[in-house]
Write a structure and sequence with these properties.
Elements lengths: L7 H24 L6 H21 L6 H32 L1
Helix pairs in contact: 1-2, 1-3
């Protein structure tokens, strides 16, 4: 089903992905080196999110600041859960060796 840009979840994810690119770049600056995901943040994630933003604007449903807030609210917990799961898997894997 096509929502014509009116899906709050879609809008939040598009805006959240743009913000997520900034977190990858910020992490690399803070670490003063490579961090996971930074190699794909600019050449893959950002252009995809910007293309989706342009399509929303073209359809008369441009993103608002509220969409970014919703995106961070949606994606931040998801990222934290994924980080926690990855660390747990690494810990369990190391314990089996």
């Amino acid at each position: 089903m096509h929502s014509a840009g009116k899906s709050a979840t879609y809008r939040a994810v598009v805006a959240g992905l743009e913000a997520h690119v900034v977190t990858h770049l910020g992490a690399s600056v803070a670490q003063r080196g490579y961090t996971a995901g930074v190699a794909t943040a600019l050449p893959i994630m950002l252009p995809g999110a910007l293309m989706a933003r342009r399509e929303l604007q073209r359809d008369g449903c441009g993103l608002r600041f509220r969409d970014t807030v919703n995106g961070v609210t949606l994606l931040l917990p998801a990222a934290l859960v994924c980080q926690g799961a990855a660390r747990l898997i690494r810990r369990v894997s190391a314990a089996k060796r």
